[in-house]
Specification:
The chain has 229 residues and is mainly beta. The chain has three domains: 41 residues, no CATH class; 36 residues, no CATH class; 137 residues, Jelly Rolls (Sandwich), CATH 2.60.120.40. 7% of the residues lie in helices and 45% in strands. The strands form five sheets. Strands 9, 11, 12, 14, 15, 16 and 18 form a seven-stranded antiparallel sheet that branches. Strands 7, 8, 10, 13, 17 and 19 form a six-stranded antiparallel sheet that branches. It has a two-stranded parallel sheet with strand order 1-4. Strand 14 and strand 15 form a beta hairpin. The chain starts with 5 loop residues before the first helix and ends with a strand.
């Protein structure tokens, strides 16, 4: 029989009415049945005040075209479109140089992108362009701790090199570290880092510049890591 809303069902069960078998069938068909194994559909919104655990969820569409969950527990589930806090784990990424990179500088204190060929691992809500850039793909604004470990070699007799992070094409002065190097010495190791807030499609790269004696900068190692904080 028909599924009916509460207002319609009540009309058949008012004082003095004589509900028919069809009225009772409509009443039963309009309720959730805990023993039923076939799919049951709720047309209106549902609020789980005490939380909810799904044994299995398939093609879940909640709240119209998308669903938002603070916490969800499921032993099996397939979601067509979900916006969630914590359901995908912490956003993180790492990329590292696959070889040396010679960075061309033309002026003192003129920062350029450290475009070194890189590979990536552990990318969760990030993409990687193969040249040291990590792009955040999440939909929510988040704050990240970025760390860069690198080794550089001197090209001129005496060379000062500064390295810093950059966000969306702009270098971040607060993350700067400077090294003073001599030519033909062992590689110099350095580290820079900082806390950076990213929105969807924001990206982070490593920048470098000469600060004494304009010359190319030879990066021998480079590792860029991001983790949500």
């Amino acid at each position: 029989m028909a599924q009916q809303d509460k207002a319609t069902l009540k009309q058949a069960f008012e004082t003095g009415d004589a509900p028919t078998g069809s009225d009772f069938e409509n009443l039963i068909d309009s309720q959730l049945n805990l023993a039923e194994t076939t799919a049951q559909t709720i047309n209106g919104p549902v609020n789980f005040a005490g939380g909810v655990t799904f044994a299995a969820v398939s093609a879940a569409t909640v709240g119209g075209s998308t669903g938002t969950f603070g916490t969800i527990t499921a032993s099996a589930g397939t979601f067509t479109q979900v916006s969630a806090n914590g359901i995908f784990g912490l956003a993180k990424a790492e990329c590292y140089a696959t070889g040396t990179g010679l960075i061309s500088t033309t002026a003192i204190n003129s920062y350029v992108v450290t475009n070194v060929g890189t590979s990536a691992e552990f990318t969760n809500q990030f993409t990687h362009n193969g040249s040291g850039r990590l792009t955040y793909t999440g939909s929510q604004t988040k704050t990240f701790m970025f760390d860069v470990d690198f080794t550089v070699s001197g090209v001129t007799a005496v060379q000062n090199v500064a390295v810093r992070l950059g966000k969306d094409g702009t270098s971040l002065a607060k993350t700067t570290m400077e090294l003073r190097m001599a030519a033909s010495s062992a590689p110099y190791a350095g580290h820079v880092g900082g806390i950076v807030t990213l929105t969807a499609n924001s990206y982070v790269e490593v920048y470098s510049t000469a600060t004494l004696n304009v010359s190319n900068i030879l990066f021998e190692k480079l590792n860029l890591r991001a983790r949500e904080v």
